[in-house]
Amino acid sequence: MLGKQFRQLITNDHLRISMTELAHVTGVSTSQIRYWERKGYISSKQSDKNKNHYFSFLTLFRVATIKYFLDQGFTLATAVKKERERQELGKIFRTFIADQVKAITQLGPKKGEVALGTLANDPEKEVYAIVDQDGTRLYSRPVSKDRG
């Protein structure tokens, strides 16, 4: 249930930002953004009334990633190619988060538990993470009838 909600949030096409906001957040000029759109590297939705361009949340990450590779000295074509390769990893990560995060519980100030589900090779055990100021640590425990 929670995984479905995460997937909807991550892939929600209604979360959009303007070209000006995209430029401001990523540090890429609006003229570059227009050029990249003309070349087909990114896409936008346009409002019917005034034809303003609005970009998805995922496009923000695409633009930031392309800029990162450009800043590393790669050509635009290579930066786009590398971003597309990274995009595949992003899809895998989003699927993992959407499918595996079963519950998040607050354990105290700045401390929580993330339930990740049962082990495939031992369904009697579940994996969970403790997240606090020291970082994230993974653990396993027997499945509880209360949690399972």
UniProtKB/TrEMBL annotation:
Stored Pfam families: MerR_1
A biological process term (GO) from this entry: regulation of DNA-templated transcription
InterPro entries linked: DNA-bd_dom_put_sf, MerR-type_HTH_dom
UniProt xrefs under SMART domains: HTH_MERR
Gene3D superfamilies on file: 1.10.1660.10
GO MF annotation list: DNA binding
Domain HTH merR-type: 16-77
The name this protein goes by in its record: Transcriptional regulator, MerR family
Organismal lineage: Bacteria, Bacillati, Bacillota, Bacilli, Lactobacillales
